[in-house]
Amino acid sequence: xxxxxxxxxxxxxxxxxxxxxxxxxxxxxxxxxxxxxxxxxxxxxxxxxxxxxxxxxxxxxxxxxxxxxxxxxxxxxxxxxxxxxxxxxxxxxxxxxxxxxxxxxxxxxxxxxxxxxxxxxxxxxxxxxxxxxxxxxxxxxxxxxxxxxxxxxxxxxxxxxxxxxxxxxxxxxxxxxxxxxxxxxxxxxxxxxxxxxxxxxxxxxxxxxxxxxxxxxxxxxxxxxxxxxxxxxxxxxxxxxxxxxxxxxxxxxxxxxxxxxxxxxxxxxxxxxxxxxxxxxxxxxxxxxxxxxxxxxxxxxxxxxxxxxxxxxxxxxxxxxxxxxxxxxxxxxxxxxxxxxxxxxxxxxxxxxxxxxxxxxxxxxxxxxxxxxxxxxxxxxxxxxxxxxxxxxxxxxxxxxxxxxxxxxxxxxxxxxxxxxxxxxxxxxxxxxxxxxxxxxxxxxxxxxxxxxxxxxxxxxxxxxxxxxxxxxxxxxxxxxxxxxxxxxxxxxxxxxxxxxxxx
Length: 504
What we know:
Radius of gyration: 32 Å
Strand content: 25-35%
Distance between the termini: 132 Å
Number of domains: 3
Number of strands: 29
Strand order of the largest sheet: 3-5-6-9-8-7
Helix content: 10-25%
Structural class: alpha+beta
Oligomer: single chain
CATH class of the largest domain: Mainly Beta
């Protein structure tokens, strides 16, 4: 019994000693060292655990991604500060956004002296060593003098080469005795939501400010649903960023900053660079952009529409309306036709059709294939030139005389169309004419009538057309006072304003 107890005791003591030895050895013995180079070669990237059998695979975090600091350092010399000056009497006042969530172009607030010279600040970026600069149309619109301040401190006079109000793109040029640094252009069609982007600009006159964010949305419609494909980003931008570059993580320009939400500084919009690249040849050669036009209003075919109209497919662009006298109307295209191909190229959406037709030259012909009541039909359409759209937000529509014989009220008006009614949420049953321009230092200017106001009545007589407006203003004489009953969309209220006719 004593021997057995002794043996067990010795065995337990040996086991405890062995375990203590292992612990001590593990604590005191250094681990084998590995070089940093070897560690990087063995593990080039950090990856998440294997994805589950269902769901979205976790993203891989890669090392060695480009630094935004390096990108900013490389591209900053290609970014310029633009100062556009115009005579006060030649440039109409800009109104504030009519709706609280209406996108607003970046532009320095106007001075208190409404009749004095106007100075607008914006941004641009050089796209070739010869001095070509891309910016926004609304930055230089109406400017009598354009100056570009380079990153090296030089200020050069810029020449207007061309501009396109429909996409808010402008091309200007500076002359330099030596080649200028320029920014490489990327491919905005490959952009993805969630990608990191960098914006460089001159917000609130703080030159060469760099901000970083992500792409929040691609293809945002703001002003014109047929052409707009804005990139939305949350990179911090403010007044003065207009025309500046939006840059991807590879250091390529993929957008031109153009507008911001009027309610938040972290919701910005940029014109895709591919849209600018497509019209650059026309801007360089002719100073303007001509686009093909067939005169139809379109919409995509969704499942509900496909079922309701008994369509065989959801592919194509459904014709909602045909403009009388347009190329489409002359060719025989009708409402409810589904356009499925142009010159044999399939059409899967209304955007695809608009982009295809707009890229054609006016005067050229196109074979448009439609499906009507289940039957395929072909129409030969001779394209016209797309009318330039009105953009009340940016103040670019050309002035139209309110009357050839009437007094100089300083007002230009246009009919109130369905698009205006929908955009500004006009009260039901509202009839009148829309103020499209107010001349500086005119009676209407002094009466605080602004662009976008709707003239409902003049001297207590209703206005339902331009003819009514002219009938009530043509006979006015110097010294007369006209009482105008207006609807002001920005305030969502009606108001009475008086205009005293004076000699011009």
